[in-house]
Design a protein that fits this description.
532 residues, 7-stranded mixed sheet, single chain, Aldehyde Dehydrogenase, Chain A, domain 2, alpha/beta, binds 7-thionicotinamide-adenine-dinucleotide phosphate, Aldehyde Dehydrogenase, Chain A, domain 1, 2 domains
């Protein structure tokens, strides 16, 4: 199979190329009306193929308008997690014995179903987590890609089982990758369909069963994913959905002795704690964790400034910086520093802050009150220790006052060592620093405990090669005007981090991802019984 020939689901780009962007807008707006009419419903958990009610519920609201309810969701507890893990454990034997070809077919079918309802899913995302329509559709497209790519990987590897020959006469040997059992899957709010679907598919297409917990803020879209998988033929108990807070539901899931492995994407603090807890249990297993980033971009003397300014503005402020891959610190050659910064400020001030339902909206609202408080706090610090060149304020526009809208912020004169230039903030905030030469730029870019995404703007081939050789990062992009650090595509650009940005150094959407969900078994039969 030609590994390079994977066609990504590129909804917006395809419409743009075909000159049918109007259809995209019409379909999206129709879907928003449909989903809005359904909002406010009550959503139980999904355990063993049945709805599961709880006494307590929590309310999710629209980050663009906090008065608008998305829905009521079951607020689970350790007892609900027990039930879900039990259902997943009971379903494991049947599912692991299901022929891999049948599993592949189910996930392909799910991809088709997700494609059929992509506008509904994108509209749900816009309303629930505030992505503008383009970003929302990209999130849905990525989820479809994960379903198709991982199904294709199982097929390409023929179920990860093969003969290893007869090393000495009479010893017939095979090698198999086999599932672990029940996986706990814990997802973040910021790619609530792509990452949720991707981790879940990785666990389940390889023969594990799963108990999945979405971020509390994005529970509705998780219900849509689980419903899609169920309609595609995933048997009862194989995928179970638990909802509730990280401490009430996430923690008991991670601590459960019958959970054999964990797939987690989220912050470094929570990820570290999960890894520690999981390894301290009686039976440790894999923790496949994708964590945060503090993504540096270098603009050298040999850069095309137009590309660099556009790449940084898009990378830093897409989805208001609420991406693990968001550009958050920029090291610019001294000679270009003033011009680069002036142009970045001008471009940033052009970005449209609006309700994400609007076709023109670029800047999204922040997901919750703690993100808003974090934004206000670091902007205050930036005013004290540096210069806020643009932004730094909560949007006071009365039309947007019910949402958590903030201005994209560009800051200079902050020492590279300062915590606001070193920690991940997950808000639209970028610091720009002058550097005397390329070596200093590389040194500062690498001076971080994170190593997720990074960008370079340079037209010099030697510089590009040297940068690839020396930069400590999982995802490396050169001269990417569309975004300096964000926007990876499944298969061609596997996604993951070095250092504290991940635990396994094998990337989502790549060729080495699925084996992490399985354990190796080496089988030898001596004598004729071992012959095929
Ligand atoms: P977190 O606050 O870490 O939450 C992630 C998930 O963990 C949520 O479902 C959360 O539940 C749950 N959780 C919280 N405390 C827990 C605990 N003690 N035990 C078990 N689960 C717990 O992250 P977030 O704010 O949703 O997402 C942003 C972070 O994710 C950023 O750091 C970002 O860089 C990272 N991220 C990384 C990547 C990759 S691929 N490296 C991709 C996307 C995001 P609640 O929602 O109920 O709190």
């Amino acid at each position: 199979m030609d590994q390079a020939r994977f066609e990504n689901e590129l909804t917006v780009a395809t419409h743009r190329n075909d000159g049918t962007l109007g259809e995209f807008h019409d379909s999206f707006e129709d879907a928003v009306s449909t989903v809005e009419a359904e909002l406010g419903a009550s959503h139980p958990m999904w355990i063993d193929g049945e709805p599961h009610e709880t006494d307590e519920q929590y309310t999710v609201t629209n980050p663009a308008d906090r008065d608008r309810e998305i829905g009521q969701f079951a607020a689970g507890s350790a007892a609900d997690v027990d039930l879900a893990v039990e259902a997943a454990a009971d379903a494991f034997d049947g599912w692991r014995r299901t022929d891999w070809r049948d599993r592949v077919e189910i996930f392909r079918d799910a991809a088709g179903r997700m494609r059929d309802r992509k506008y509904r899913l994108a509209a749900t995302l816009t309303l629930e987590n505030g992505k503008n329509r383009f970003e929302a559709m990209a999130d849905v497209d990525e989820a479809i890609d994960f379903l198709r790519f991982y199904a294709r990987e199982v097929e390409r590897n023929e179920g990860y089982a093969f003969d290893t020959g007869e090393p000495t006469p009479g010893q017939h040997c095979r090698n198999e990758l086999r599932p672990f059992g029940v996986f706990g899957v814990v997802a973040p709010f910021n790619f609530p369909i792509a990452i949720f679907t991707g981790m879940l598919t990785g666990a389940v297409v390889t023969g594990n069963t799963a108990v999945a917990k979405p971020a509390s803020a994005t529970s509705l879209v998780a219900h849509e994913v689980v419903e899609t998988l169920s309609e595609a033929g995933v048997p009862d108990g194989v995928v179970n959905l638990v909802t509730g807070s990280g401490s009430d539901v996430g923690q008991p899931l991670i601590e459960h002795e019958d959970v054999a492995g964990v797939a987690f994407t989220g912050s470094r603090a929570v990820g570290r704690e999960i890894r520690r807890t999981f390894f301290e249990r009686e039976k440790p297993g894999p923790v496949i964790a994708e964590l945060g980033g503090k993504n540096p971009v270098i603009v050298t003397e040999n850069a095309d400034l137009e590309k660099a300014v556009s790449g940084v503005a898009n990378g830093a402020f897409g989805f208001s910086g609420q991406k693990c891959s968001a550009t958050s610190r920029v090291y610019v050659a001294e000679a270009l520093f003033d011009e680069f910064t002036d142009r970045l400020v001008a471009e940033t001030e052009e970005l449209v802050i609006d309700d994400p339902r609007s076709a023109d909206a670029f800047v999204s609202p922040l997901i919750d009150d703690s993100a808003l408080a974090r934004y206000e706090r670091i902007c205050e610090t930036a005013r004290e220790v540096g210069t806020v060149r643009t932004g730094g304020e909560v949007v006071a526009d009365t039309d947007l006052a019910d949402g958590r809208f903030v201005e994209p912020t560009v800051v200079t004169d902050v020492p590279h060592e300062h915590e606001i230039a070193r920690e991940e903030h997950f808000v639209p905030f970028v610091t720009v620093h002058p550097v005397s030469d390329f070596d200093e730029a590389i040194e500062k870019a690498n001076d971080s405990s994170y190593g997720l995404c990074t960008g370079l703007f340079s037209e010099d081939e030697d510089e590009i090669e040297a940068w690839f050789d020396r930069i400590e990062s999982g995802m490396c992009y050169v001269n990417r005007e569309q975004s300096a650090t964000t926007g990876a595509l499944v298969q061609a650009q596997p996604f993951g981090g070095w250092k504290a940005s991940g635990t396994t150094s094998k990337f989502a959407g790549g060729y080495w991802y699925l084996p992490q969900f399985m354990r190796e078994q080496s089988r030898t039969v001596v004598g004729d019984a071992g012959r095929e």
